């Protein structure tokens, strides 16, 4: 396949700065055990916005400062292999679909990699902070940790599954629910939330969606059995009215401190709080320790998922069990998409068309 000399990229020269489109960036040449892929579509994640703004948080709650600059974001991409570098295996083929995920490279030797939780690899790199991501036309990827996608998937809808989808899927798995259990999704109409609703329903949960009132029909059409408008009703009170004893689990996908403030109060004895959204700053859960102890609550965090879990999430979409709600926009509308994300005006997920 023809490989041009230059590519168009969406560049952020300094954290907190604006997005600049450059058309004169050289196309990378695939090195040892690398493939070159042409990016076709990519989702836009809240983490991309936080990174651009310089508000992405570390595990300690402080801003991440070690970010590659100039910065090319994007970690929900789908592309086609254009060229194979030296050492690539015979199972790879030019023209095949591949994903560009958050995780870019892993060591495959540390305790986390060996345990199948390689997203926590102590020597890993990612497409958000360390390497150029999918907001560009061409990208070099590690062939030994490649996300090989089935040929029959729709590349427009699969991009968001590679981050939002697998994160929502992992959050539902970590909630440890059974068929018929009540599960609350806070932020149910958003990019993460609308997928969490569907993955929870696929596990047999009775889903209660919490979001602003204008997303009621959207969330109910996804399969939620109840909807709570947090702008007009007390979500904690309504959850208890609906469930009696409280929900078996709650998945909080909204990147807002208020969404987490009273999430534990929605839960019954032995309930699980599955945390996904990351609010800016260093907000904390407003739950007394005695409540956690006496009610036997479980609190779990969810950082994307393993490659295996990613492919499970992809397969549920491939088979039509989960249907991402997307809107395809031109690549150069990325700055406007960021503005809409900051206002909270987006239902579902925005996907940018990077190339033909």
Number of helices: 11
Please write the CATH class name of the largest domain.
Alpha Beta
Q: What's the helical proportion of residues?
A: 10-25%
Q: How many DSSP-defined strands?
A: 17
Q: pLDDT below 50 for ≥5 consecutive residues: which ranges?
A: none
Distance between the termini: 14 Å
Secondary-structure class: alpha/beta
What would you give as the CATH superfamily of the largest domain?
Medium-chain alcohol dehydrogenases, catalytic domain
- Beta percentage is 25-35%
Task: Name the helix and strand elements from N-terminus to C-terminus, one letter apiece.
Answer: EEEHEEEHEEEHHEHEHEHEHEHEHEHE
Q: How many structural units, i.e. domains? A: 2
**What does the main sheet amount to?**
7 strands, mixed
Shape: globular
Mind telling me which CATH architecture of the largest domain this is? Alpha-Beta Complex
Overall radius of gyration: 20 Å
Mean pLDDT: 93
CATH topology of the largest domain: Quinone Oxidoreductase, Chain A, domain 1
Can you put this structure into words, describing what you see?
It is a single chain. With about 350 residues, this protein is α/β, with parallel strands linked by helices. The chain folds into two domains: about 5-165 and about 305-355, Alpha-Beta Complex (Quinone Oxidoreductase, Chain A, domain 1); about 165-300, Rossmann fold (3-Layer(aba) Sandwich), CATH 3.40.50. Helices cover about 25% and strands about 25% of the residues. The chain has eleven helices and 17 strands. Strands 3, 4, 5, 8, 9, 16 and 17 form a seven-stranded mixed β-sheet that branches. A six-stranded parallel β-sheet has the order 12-11-10-13-14-15, with helices on both faces. It has a two-stranded antiparallel ribbon with strand order 1-2. GO terms for molecular function: alcohol dehydrogenase (NAD+) activity; zinc ion binding.
